[in-house]
Write a structure and sequence with these properties.
- By secondary structure, the protein is of the alpha+beta class.
- The chain contains four helices and eight strands; from the N terminus they run αααββββββββα.
- The protein has a four-stranded antiparallel sheet with strand order 1-2-3-4, with no helix packed on it. A four-stranded antiparallel sheet has the order 5-6-7-8.
- The C terminus is likely disordered.
Length: about 180
């Protein structure tokens, strides 16, 4: 085989491998390049006096792949200063299957209906419990720079169904 013959074969291989390029491009875009919304999440830029640090957790515990981000959102809480509220974005897999896809939670999702205060900030997200059939995330929804608010336990089961328990922080401290 001459040098020219080798070049000929090298050029033919890509042509034969990609005989229907339109179909191959569509297949690669749909099957191999899933957009990961979670990784693209960014904090909302605000001109406020106080913005809490982002919290990002990406961990695997037993059969759970747990990812969540606490990020400032567009809501501003005005007291003595202006504070940025936060959103909690949750992304979960169980046994390799996506069960929660970048679900957003905000402080107003957890405040009891009879509470008339509108100045709560979601803060301090963490993993508090991991079991075979359920995980629990914990955080507080409180008035900025105070201990007044609610402790929240947000539970997810293996199907992605969630429930939550809200405890008034005043009740928590009065029990001690």
């Amino acid at each position: 085989m001459t040098k020219t013959d080798k070049r000929f074969w090298i050029l033919l291989i890509p042509i034969f491998c990609n005989s229907n390029s339109k179909e191959a491009d569509t297949k690669s875009a749909n099957d191999f390049q899933r957009v990961d919304e979670f990784m693209q999440l960014k904090a909302v830029n605000q001109s406020v006096d106080d913005v809490t640090d982002e919290i990002t957790v990406d961990t695997i515990i037993n059969e759970w792949h747990i990812r969540f981000k606490q990020l400032p959102n567009e809501r501003v809480i005005s007291r003595h200063f202006d504070y940025a509220d936060n959103s909690l974005f949750v992304d979960l897999e169980y046994n390799g299957f996506k069960i929660v896809d970048c679900k957003e939670f905000r402080s107003e999702n957890f405040i009891p209906e009879n509470d008339t205060i509108t100045a709560y900030q979601l803060y301090g997200s963490s993993i508090s419990q991991v079991e075979d059939s359920v995980i629990t995330l914990s955080f507080v929804c409180c008035i900025p720079d105070t201990d007044i608010g609610y402790d929240v336990s947000l539970k997810f089961d293996t199907q992605g169904t969630y429930s939550y328990k809200v405890t008034d922080t005043i009740d928590f401290y009065s029990e001690e």
